Amino acid sequence: MIRKYLVCGKQLFLASKKLEDSNSKSPVVELLIPLTLLWEIERLVQRIDYLVASNEDPVLISDLMKKVYRKVVKYAVFEKDRVFIFDKFLGVGPPATGGGNH
């Protein structure tokens, strides 16, 4: 497992160390992820960067960002980060627990 930090600003990127910049308002999610998933996430982030720089369709970029969030959400170290990803980026609440009737 590899420890990385996903910076969720206007653009996504992975950092090896937690950013301590007080001017940065971008949320940072601490991840503990398998190496093979890290490689996959890095490829997706590179593709997102390319599409943003190329002024591509924002819907395509948004879909790729959601794909990244879906892949990393279960590897967030802290529960507050998992909830953050669910609420802000996936547009849904965390999965329901318990067996209540709806």
As a percent range, the share of helical residues equals 40-55%
* Order of strands, widest sheet: 2-1-3
Distance between the termini: 38 Å
Strand content: 15-25%
Shape: globular
- Mean pLDDT over the full residue set: 83
Q: What order do the helices and strands follow?
A: EEEHHH
- Structural class estimated from helices and strands: alpha+beta
- Radius of gyration equals 14 Å
Which residues sit in consecutive blocks of at least 5 with pLDDT less than 50? 96-102
Q: Characterize the biggest β-sheet.
A: 3 strands, antiparallel
Number of helices: 3
Number of E strands = 3
What would your notes on this structure say?
With 102 residues, the protein is an alpha+beta fold. 45% of the residues lie in helices and 17% in strands. The chain has three helices and three strands; from the N terminus they run E-E-E-H-H-H. The protein has a three-stranded antiparallel sheet, covered by helices on one side. The longest helix has 19 residues, at 35-53. The N and C termini lie far apart (38 Å). Mean pLDDT is 83; it is low at 96-102.
Key words describing this protein structure:
102 residues; alpha+beta; three-stranded antiparallel beta sheet; 3 helices; 3 strands; 17% strand; disordered C terminus
Summarize this, please?
With 102 residues, this protein is an alpha+beta fold. The protein has three helices and three strands, in the order E-E-E-H-H-H. It starts with a strand and ends in a 12-residue tail after the last helix.
